[in-house]
Amino acid sequence: MKSWTDRTPRLATDALGLLEAAGATGDEVAEVRVGPLKAVVISHPTLIREVLVERPDDFPKGRRQHAALRPVLGYGLLTSDGDLHRRQRRLVQPTLVPAEIDRQVGVMVDEAAAAADAWPRGVCDVVPLVNALAMDIVGRMLFGRALRDEGALAASIVTAFEWEMRALSGVVAPAWVPTPGNRRMRAAVASIDARLNELAGQSHAPPADSRTILDALRQRRDADGMTMARPQLLDEVRTIWGAAHETSADAQAWCLDLLARHPEVQERLAREIDESGGSGTLDLADLEAIPYAMAVFKEALRLYPPAAAMLRAARRSTTLGGVRLRAGTLVFISPYLMHRRDDLFPDPLRFDPDRFGPDRAQETPRHAYLPFGVGKRACVGSYMALLEGQALTATLVQRLRFAPADPRPPDAELVINLRPARGVRLVLTDRSDRQEG
């Protein structure tokens, strides 16, 4: 393991550059520094399996991660540990299984179709557009109402998430210190909680076939017959909100940019939608008949996984990949680097949705594709994320054609999620206006 930290980017200012520099060393366990702390970056499926599946208790989420995330997310699934995490996972996971999420397909498609009709034609930045779309979808899935006019809520979420990234980088004072940045974070979290409380209070018991995720969460009972206490329920709502809004929007923005830069893929998808009979509003059966839409979205997640890095910490002195780690060493697990390894994905920088087609389903080594993690802390919302990505991709391409407005692809930055640094400028036209042949 080489020490090369003096000439690498800093986590606080260029987290993605730090990961890329680690990957460029060729070391399976590459050493970096995060402020005064030593850290390592791993991107091989065998090592990632060891940390997340075989030895999760040796590599828990560390103090730094909890200190950065809990002030914003409380004790939801992403930040809870031990018995609380096990209890909450048993309560939350059944609300996000296919039988529950499939009933939300109409919400996803309806909102995507309405957005496609309303979006401006010509050159525009699609990032705010997909952010608003994702907010409407998560609002309807959680609360039964679109939230397109919730600008203050969206701004508070951005403020809180940006504070999280700075806290993970170790460049802010502890949350209890009343610095200007910490006060802004706390005000943003208070604003988020107040609004979520209002939205949760407006919910009512709907028919079973139209219940929201919040309704399902309220009805879940643990082994003792107890439902979630209101503060815990809101922590879980805030966690689901963050994952379903920010993550979905970032992933969709990358997917649209890739489609715009690969018109042959875009037109193939449009043809398959037409050939499947999808001329009207798509439903679950239509989506099942368009597997290429899922393959396109999965390939976009491979190149631009929103969770580009996951953070763990060595509980005690140990060995990983033949390298000795001291207790407290931070371990960055990077799906972003792993997804771009040419020993795992031939020609890894090429956008090739057929990697996820039925004829090549067995080519990817186990645990080499991890947009949602693995093990006991794998994302419980992975099915929802994939179904929403497929539904939005198919619905938007059914109605619109996308072309790049800039010759160079957007730069990426890692701020909690992997997102376009300066937006995604595309040219939007109606499908009926596209040039054939």
Topology:
Blueprint: H1 15-24, E1 29-34, E2 37-42, H2 45-54, H3 63-73, H4 82-92, H5 98-101, H6 105-118, E3 122-125, H7 126-143, H8 151-168, H9 180-202, H10 213-219, H11 230-261, H12 263-275, H13 284-288, H14 291-303, E4 310-313, E5 318-320, E6 323-325, E7 330-333, H15 335-339, H16 382-399, E8 400-404, E9 412-415, E10 417-420, E11 425-430
Parallel strand pairs: 2-7
Antiparallel strand pairs: 1-2, 3-11, 4-7, 5-6, 8-11, 9-10
Helix pairs in contact: 3-8, 6-7, 6-16, 7-11, 8-9, 11-14, 11-16, 14-16
The CATH superfamily of the largest domain is known as Cytochrome P450
How would a crystallographer describe the biggest sheet? Answer: 4 strands, mixed
* Residues in helix, %: 40-55%
Q: What is the CA-CA span between the terminal residues?
A: 54 Å
User: What is the correct CATH architecture of the largest domain?
Assistant: Orthogonal Bundle
Number of domains: 2
Unreliable sequence segments: 1-7, 433-437
Number of strands: 11
Structural class: alpha+beta
The geometry reads as globular
In the CATH hierarchy, what is the class of the largest domain?
Mainly Alpha
Mean pLDDT: 88
CATH topology (fold) name of the largest domain: Cytochrome p450
Strand fraction equals: 5-15%
Strand order of the biggest β-sheet: 1-2-7-4
Alpha plus pi helix count: 16
As a whole number of angstroms, the C-alpha radius of gyration is 21 Å
Question: Can you write the helix and strand succession as a string?
Answer: HEEHHHHHEHHHHHHHHEEEEHHEEEE
